[in-house]
Amino acid sequence: MLFAVLAALVAGITLACFALLLPACVGLDRVRSVVADRDRLRRRLRVAAPYVGGLAVVLLLNKGLLDRIEAFSRRHGLRPTEWFYAVEGDFVATLQATLPDWGLYYFGPMYVFGYVVVLVFPFVAYLFASNPRPLKTLVAAYAVNYAVAIVCYGAVLAYGPRNYHRLPGADPDAARVEAPLLEAFPEVTRLTARVNVETNVFPSLHTALSVTVLLVAVSTHEEFPRWTPVAGLLAGSIVVATMYLGTHWATDVIAGAALAAGSVAVARRIVSRTGRRDAW
């Protein structure tokens, strides 16, 4: 019941954000011109369908193998959590101490609601682009991100900074990293546990996918100039939120950003090789 309420809340807030972003970043005239022509809209959906289908397969694999990936990682995975702390020390704890306590009420919603908006809105916005390349690139990059993450989460068993102090070999002098979102709203774990486990830390997929959206948004700035700064604000806030909330190390964030850059580069190559044309 609680999960249904949380899911409904996320859906409601996402739709409300769409109601604001579509006219502001895409334009109602552009939307109406495509929606009014049913054949034109169907063509666009057909062009996107193979890419969306490929992403769906990767997501289903990720969800279906979640428990097996975790089990494999526990048996065979590298365990670099202590190394992460040795490299960056108390950076995350310092970040938490530097930002004000009310930051929870900004970064918490960004981590949960902003993340959904930044991932889903471009799907809709790029349906109204002048050519299918941005949508194809975005969806293909999502698939690459998830595919690489599946491998990484199987190969690496890592814990976030909020769990570091629980590890047997943890530095006793390490500053404690809090988990403000989970402490203030423990029911959030019911939602996140459906799609993730606490050892899926390296790389940060929140970072990877958010930065992916930003990189594609930059490439479409000429056509959607208002979306670029919005994507930048959302992506930047989500990246900081992953550390402020104690979920990820800075190392995870850097790896996530690198994954985003690589995924977009691979996606562009895929689109260039498989796309017969750039118009729809």
From TrEMBL:
Annotated keywords: Membrane, Transmembrane, Transmembrane helix
SMART domains, sorted: acidPPc (SM00014)
Domain Phosphatidic acid phosphatase type 2/haloperoxidase: 143-268
Location relative to the cell: Membrane
Chain segments annotated as transmembrane: 43-62, 105-127, 139-159, 253-271
Source species, domain of life: Archaea
Membrane protein topology class: Multi-pass membrane protein
InterPro entries linked to this entry: Aur1/Ipt1 (IPR026841), IPC_Synthase-Related (IPR052185), PAP2/HPO (IPR000326), PAP2/HPO_sf (IPR036938)
A GO cellular-component term linked to this record: membrane
Subcellular location, principal: membrane
Stated name of the protein: Phosphatase PAP2 family protein
